[in-house]
């Protein structure tokens, strides 16, 4: 269903067009008066004999509507029709029709006394779970500043080439209320601060609309007599070749998405994003977002427009196109639906959007929204959706306080945000969000994220790069950005984990609960001093999808003996960690090792046995190594062409290692325990964390000068000992270069200068050629 047309058993009635999504035409001036309050009114179910009002007759939905329409103190706006106990594929209790109306608080109290059969609650506004406020919270002035003292600051925002940046938000904070403005076509914005002087200004934050990093200056030296120049840094200066070259975000690397095989793409799963719409003109969203509903203006294709840019950003994190440019999402082949409720989204809109999701058979709903108030009707609708097999992934909220609604509900997966200190340049608003402890690898809990016992998991939510309309990219903060990371992973788990084709194939609450259990059990804990900020930790895609990875066909074993010898030589030379020890920084550790703290351990991460013998079906796999050449915790390659792409079934290329998602190299090596969050580091700029390349598309290959392939040199494909390590070599040849008089022979049938067996398949030749070149550079091979 690609329009706003309702199903035959309509979930709502046609609503009149409203000016919520666009500015109303200017009219004659009118005195300012308080806005009327909006309420949701529904008939309670048949009352319990002990309930108040049990003696009063129950009302049906039509009676409730007529009662309110006949009341002169009430203005009925619309009705969201109730649902009988016949949702597709699920037997769930019915849900009453909800009448949305405006009236006064006093009249509401009168209605409650007169009609105890009715449930009446505020139809409150929802907010985005994106960070809109100053990076550092200041206590606002208790009253409006007295007249007579004000300061006006003109801010000029342009790039280093002198090009003005229109549409950038400028926020000035002082001891009182903050001031905000947006730059015009000339890149200028004027902010007037009442009761402030230049010396009392505490912060200046500039957020360009897209294409640039934000700028944050503490205690800025602002002038009231000239333009105050701000020059943001282009994103392309951090992510080389972007957007013409595809980038894996730091969060996707931290969750090990870039290490998944390209066959795991989420096909057959439906994801709904309840947000501000999704602009399908964007290259990363074209043909990715395929259907939707507009609950703002009731336009047939209104869900394809996104004036707030928020929904498009979330949608691309989940399912950005894998086309070799821009960014790439988690579940690139999932069917994405956009339920547009912003701007101006309310509880009643969320109820109607969830009705749409159940009707359309959606599997995962991303809710990057929040409220400081509980809604019994919304809570009942979310539980009804859960009973119908719809999993709701919810952002925790961004005011730094307790978890916001609906993240407080037990039937949802609530996601907090974490950041990584090397994921952004210094002097940005992202840097100002660092609060509390920082792990040795730079992970931190940002000051904006909500916390509490309701937090299930945490995910990347600081400096998240994604798509914004019409064809640009922006870096945003918020639990809004963290939730799509988990929603995308949830789609992959539903699509590829065997449990959801067997015991949990039915669309019911058991399916949802099992999905959430798998995601929580895949997490790597982060030691940030407060479990209520991080929950179970950061989900790990390799662990969550371990059963699916076990079904991947292993690589041919024709080169096993030689690879085994190479692994032994590289271990002796210190290029690989001995079995059972953590890998050194920058070098891979053996798969199957335990997560004990060691020289290469991820600081701040609890020790885990990732992919060790005796692991559970949801995460660790027996045998240690992953099939298809995956190396948990190993290097991703460097910008100079170290470890980078070979599809063992298709030849060499400029991308990920055999069986891995992605064909791009990262900006630096990563070490640490298998399954730990990871993130590349640039050799020149510590915040250049996005791995670039030609994408995760199957068959995508790099161009000239791209790096040679990576192979699983930790196992050699040969026999393994009980702990998953290669068998120890014997004889005096250990420690001698291969091919030397005392070293292991290269064998009689090899290609001269490479050590590759004559007759080897092309992918074997490419793999061994790369290994030989690496060992020659390390002095392990003569000549």
Number of strands: 31
- Arithmetic mean pLDDT: 76
Provide the low-confidence segments as ranges: 1-11, 134-142, 582-660, 662-675, 678-750
N/C terminus separation: 66 Å
Query: Count the helices. How many?
Result: 13
SSE class: alpha+beta
The level of helicity is 10-25%
Radius of gyration, rounded?
29 Å
Fraction of residues in β-strands: 15-25%
Main sheet record: 9 strands, mixed
User: What is the 3D form?
Assistant: globular
What does this structure look like?
The chain is of the alpha+beta class. Helix content is 17%, strand content 18%. The chain is built from 13 helices and 31 strands. The strands form 9 sheets. Strands 14, 15, 16, 17, 19, 20, 21, 22 and 23 form a 9-stranded mixed β-sheet that branches. The protein has a 4-stranded antiparallel β-sheet with strand order 2-3-1-4, sandwiched between helices. Strands 8-7-10-11 form a 4-stranded antiparallel β-sheet, with no helix packed on it. Helix 5 (347-359) runs parallel beside helix 6 and helix 7 (479-496) crosses helix 8. The longest helix has 18 residues, at 479-496. It is globular and about 95 Å long. It starts with 36 loop residues before the first strand and ends in a 6-residue tail after the last helix.
Give keywords:
783 residues, alpha+beta, nine-stranded mixed sheet, four-stranded antiparallel sheet, 13 helices, 31 strands, 18% strand, globular
């Amino acid at each position: 269903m690609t329009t706003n047309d309702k199903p035959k058993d309509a979930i709502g009635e046609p609503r009149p067009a409203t000016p919520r999504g666009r500015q109303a035409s200017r009219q004659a001036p009118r005195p300012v008066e308080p806005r009327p309050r909006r309420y949701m009114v529904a008939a309670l179910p048949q009352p319990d004999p002990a309930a108040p009002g049990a003696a009063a007759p129950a009302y049906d939905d039509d009676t409730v509507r007529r009662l309110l329409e006949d009341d002169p103190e009430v203005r009925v706006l619309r009705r969201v029709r109730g649902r009988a106990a016949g949702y597709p594929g699920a037997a769930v209790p019915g849900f009453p029709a909800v009448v949305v109306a405006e009236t006064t608080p006093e009249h509401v109290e009168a209605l409650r006394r007169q009609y105890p059969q009715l449930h009446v609650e505020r139809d409150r506004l929802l907010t985005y779970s994106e960070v809109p406020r100053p990076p550092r919270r200041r206590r606002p002035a208790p009253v409006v500043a007295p007249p007579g003292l004000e300061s006006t600051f003109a801010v000029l925002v342009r790039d280093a080439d002198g090009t003005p940046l229109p549409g950038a938000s400028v926020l000035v904070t002082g001891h009182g209320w903050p001031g905000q403005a947006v730059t015009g076509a000339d890149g200028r914005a004027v902010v007037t601060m009442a009761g402030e002087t230049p010396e009392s200004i505490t912060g200046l934050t500039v957020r360009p609309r897209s294409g640039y990093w934000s700028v944050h200056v503490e205690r800025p030296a602002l002038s009231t007599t000239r333009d105050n120049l701000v020059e943001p840094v282009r994103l392309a200066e951090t992510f080389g070749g972007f957007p013409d070259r595809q980038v894996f975000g730091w969060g996707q690397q931290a969750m090990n998405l870039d290490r998944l095989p390209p066959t795991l793409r989420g096909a057959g799963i439906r994801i709904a994003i309840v947000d501000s719409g999704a602009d399908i003109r964007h290259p990363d969203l074209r043909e990715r977002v395929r259907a939707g509903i507009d609950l703002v203006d009731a336009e047939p294709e209104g869900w394809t427009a996104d004036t707030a840019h928020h929904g498009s950003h979330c949608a691309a994190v989940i399912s950005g196109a894998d086309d070799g440019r821009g960014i790439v999402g988690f579940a690139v082949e999932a069917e994405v639906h956009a339920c547009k409720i912003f701007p101006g989204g309310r509880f009643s809109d969320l109820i109607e959007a969830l009705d749409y999701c159940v009707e359309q058979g959606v599997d995962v709903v991303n809710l990057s929204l929040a409220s400081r108030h509980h809604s019994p009707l919304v809570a009942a609708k979310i539980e009804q959706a859960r009973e119908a097999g719809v999993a709701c992934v919810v952002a925790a909220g961004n005011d730094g306080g307790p978890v916001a609604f609906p993240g407080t509900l037990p039937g949802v997966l609530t996601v907090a945000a974490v950041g990584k200190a090397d994921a952004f340049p210094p002097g940005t608003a992202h840097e100002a969000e660092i609060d509390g402890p920082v792990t040795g690898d730079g992970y931190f809990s940002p000051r904006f994220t909500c916390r509490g016992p309701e937090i299930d998991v945490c995910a990347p939510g600081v400096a998240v790069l994604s798509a914004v309309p019409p064809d640009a990219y922006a870096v945003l903060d918020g639990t809004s950005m963290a939730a799509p990371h988990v929603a995308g992973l949830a789609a992959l788990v539903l699509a590829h984990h065997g449990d959801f084709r067997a015991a949990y194939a039915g669309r019911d609450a058991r399916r949802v609960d099992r999905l959430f259990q798998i995601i929580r059990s895949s997490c790597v804990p982060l030691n940030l001093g407060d479990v209520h900020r991080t929950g179970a930790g950061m989900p790990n895609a390799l662990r969550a999808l371990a059963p699916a990875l076990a079904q991947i066909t292993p690589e041919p074993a024709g080169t096993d003996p030689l690879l085994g010898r190479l692994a032994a030589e590289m271990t002796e030379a210190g290029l690989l960690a001995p079995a059972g020890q953590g890998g050194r920084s920058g070098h891979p550790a053996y798969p199957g090792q335990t997560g004990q703290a060691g020289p290469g351990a991820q600081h701040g991460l609890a020790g885990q046995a990732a992919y060790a013998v005796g692991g559970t079906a949801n995460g660790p796999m027996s045998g240690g190594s992953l099939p298809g050449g995956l190396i948990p915790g190993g290097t991703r390659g460097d910008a100079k062409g170290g470890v980078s792409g070979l599809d063992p079934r298709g030849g060499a290329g400029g991308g990920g290692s055999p069986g891995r998602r992605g064909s791009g190299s990262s900006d630096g090596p990563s070490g640490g325990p298998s399954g730990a969050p990871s993130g590349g580091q640039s050799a020149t700029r510590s915040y250049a964390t996005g791995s670039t390349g030609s994408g995760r598309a199957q068959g995508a290959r790099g161009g000239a000068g791209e790096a040679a392939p990576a192979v699983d040199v930790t196992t050699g494909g040969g026999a393994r000992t009980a702990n998953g390590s290669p068998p120890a070599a014997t004889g005096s040849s250990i420690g001698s270069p291969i091919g030397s008089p005392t070293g292991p022979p290269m064998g009689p049938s090899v290609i001269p200068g490479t050590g590759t067996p004559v007759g080897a398949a092309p992918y074997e030749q490419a793999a061994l050629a790369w290994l030989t070149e690496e060992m020659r550079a390390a002095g392990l091979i003569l000549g």
